[in-house]
Design a protein that fits this description.
Elements (H helix, E strand, L loop, with lengths): L8 H10 L18 H13 L13 H8 L3 H11 L2 H13 L2 E5 L7 H7 L6 E6 L8 E5 L6 H16 L3 E4 L5 H11 L4 E4 L4 H4 L3 H8 L3 E5 L9 H13 L3 E4 L8 H12 L4 E4 L6 H8 L3 E3 L7 H7 L20
Parallel strand pairs: 3-4, 3-7, 4-5, 5-6, 7-8, 8-9
Antiparallel strand pairs: 1-2, 2-6
């Protein structure tokens, strides 16, 4: 597969600037770190306002020219020039990535999931890596999230909801972690449906199991991560991928959440504040305190494990948090 099959010139520049992909691990101390999401959003505004206009136009520019055209400090311009200078090595790594059945997409590429870009806007990951059927990312998905150590009643609720979603032609999107995530995703697959896994750790390791490879070949699963394909697990990475789960979903169900701690709570609160999608919570008598507290923050109650209709959602949304607009992507997608 040729690099330009998935990455535009703008996308390749974004990959070079915003990802450590192609850098030796551990990175040598003199290698500049990639731009964080907030740093990229600031740089993107400077590129858009400059004569360069687009990220792809930065390629081949000297640090002196970048400092002049983008009104940057010399050290920041040098950082950009050195990151872009990795293009040869990254091209080789991309060929290897594609040969292993993985792919990459950036926020300015046509291959990037439309729902994720439109929902999260400037908070969408600059780069995502994946394996499997990419069209599932733009299909009709509902998210199911919850605790790793879930109670039997919660486990049954998650599984029944997943089966109901499959019967409605929906795919389940979740984090692929032990507990609620895997219970819901596996229930969907067992019912003949499809699943989207948003990973916080090694994508490469996950696709090596024979069972997962077969699911990928059958186009029943797609796996994505906003981190490098070899990244190991950390709590920070798990927290950071939460927004991708919500960003890919029409609605999300919180099966079980602790109160004011843990990734499930943090992700749900963030989603409610940003109004990324309707957030439902299980409201059975044995639901944990976190579920009840999320209702106070604008989540919608779900007493039985079924996918609510549009009318049912509308009737429940009188207490929802108002939508808070966020900035649009500055660059038109796929022009280069």
């Amino acid at each position: 597969m040729n690099t330009h099959d998935l990455l535009s010139d703008d996308g390749l520049a974004m990959l070079l600037l915003c990802s450590a992909f192609g850098t030796a691990s551990p990175a040598p101390p003199d290698v500049p770190g990639p731009f964080t999401l907030s740093e990229w959003n600031q740089l993107a505004r400077k590129i858009h306002a400059s004569s360069l206009q687009r990220p792809g136009a930065l390629a081949g520019q000297s640090a002196v020219a970048l400092a002049r055209d983008l009104r940057l400090a010399p050290d920041e311009a040098e950082r950009i020039a050195r990151l872009l200078g990795r293009s040869g090595r990254v091209a080789i790594e991309l060929d290897s990535l594609f040969s292993r059945g993985l792919w990459v997409s950036t926020r300015v590429d046509k291959s990037y999931p439309t729902r994720l870009r439109e929902t999260l806007k400037h908070q969408a990951p600059t780069v995502i890596f994946g394996a499997g059927e990419r069209t599932l990312l733009s299909g009709r998905n509902v998210a199911v999230v919850g605790s790793r150590n879930i109670d039997p009643a919660g486990a049954a609720f998650a599984q029944e909801f997943a089966r109901e979603a499959v019967s409605e032609g929906l795919a389940i999107v979740s984090g692929g972690a032990r507990g609620t995530d895997l219970l819901a995703m596996n229930a969907a697959l067992d019912a003949g449906g499809k699943s989207v896994g948003v990973l916080a750790d090694s994508l490469e390791r996950t696709i090596r199991t024979p069972e997962m490879r077969q699911l990928l070949l059958d186009r029943r699963v797609v796996l994505v991560t906003p981190y490098a394909p070899t990244a190991g697990f950390s709590v920070g990475l798990a927290m950071g991928r939460n927004k991708v789960i919500y960003g890919l979903a029409e609605l999300a169900l919180v099966v079980s959440s602790e109160h004011e701690k843990g990734g499930t709570w943090a992700g749900a609160v963030e989603a409610l504040k940003a109004a990324w999608c309707p957030v439902l919570v299980r409201t059975s008598d044995d639901a944990p305190q976190g579920n009840r507290e999320l209702l106070k923050r604008g989540a919608l109650p779900l007493a039985k494990p079924h996918v609510p209709t549009v009318g049912e959602l509308a009737a429940s949304q009188s207490t929802a948090v108002p939508f808070a607009p966020v900035a649009q992507e500055l660059f038109a997608v796929g022009e280069t």
